[in-house]
Amino acid sequence: MPRRGSRAGRRHGAEWAATALLLVVLAPALWLLQMSFRTEASINGGVFVATLANYTSLAGSGFPASFANSVVASTTATALALLLGVPAAYALSRGGMRRRGTIAMWVLVTRMAPPIAFTVPFFLAFSWLGLIDTVSGLVVVYLTFDLAMVIWTMRSFFAAIPHSLEEAAWIDGAGVWGAFLRVVLPLSVPGLAATGILCFIMSWNDFFFALILTRTNAMTAPVAIVNFMQYAGWEWGKIAAAGVLVLLPVLAFTLLTRRYLVRGLTAGGVKE
Q1: Looking at per-residue confidence, does 96 or 67 come out higher?
Q2: Are residues 144 and 263 in the same domain?
């Protein structure tokens, strides 16, 4: 039998290895954080000098408006994707369609093409509809990609829920949508949380479409950071402060739903 001490040593070794890996993963974010509180001179090689000027200077720029555009576009797109995609995923999971697997695969195919393949169609259509440089246009773009993820991911979660629970609800007098709202949906909260986080992160981190389809009115936070990179020099303090602020919503959203995140990311792994 292995000694208890050797097992404890291996456990401690694994804990130290996990801690070291965590520090490596967090190192860029921690470096960005400390840079955001330094003066421009100290960032360029001087002695560390703490300051809040990088954050206060953002208030006088166009960054707050861009940050608000990102919040509105990402939140709205995520909410609409869940509102439309969850019932569609339930229909593909429980419906009697003969080719529901093929339909689900074609839904996933829309996420496989590179974003640049959709740039010209989106730009031409938005120019004709008057959606260039509008938050509504960004919501439409983000929705087209978030919707595919919601349908594909939630379909697996619904498949993991026993069909007998819905049948029991039907016997008690609930209809199809009654069973869905009162039985299936509450059991899918971990999946909804994980899927919502992934959709929000994808929308929030978008740079390509926001760069092509916006100018000034609907500019998002990731694009606004580029304005601090000028030919005369890069304003590293503002870049770092804006980067920290961009990290905060995703971090807050994840912490609020952390109870369901781990369960949600693993519970849908079933084979139909």
Answers
A1: 67
A2: yes
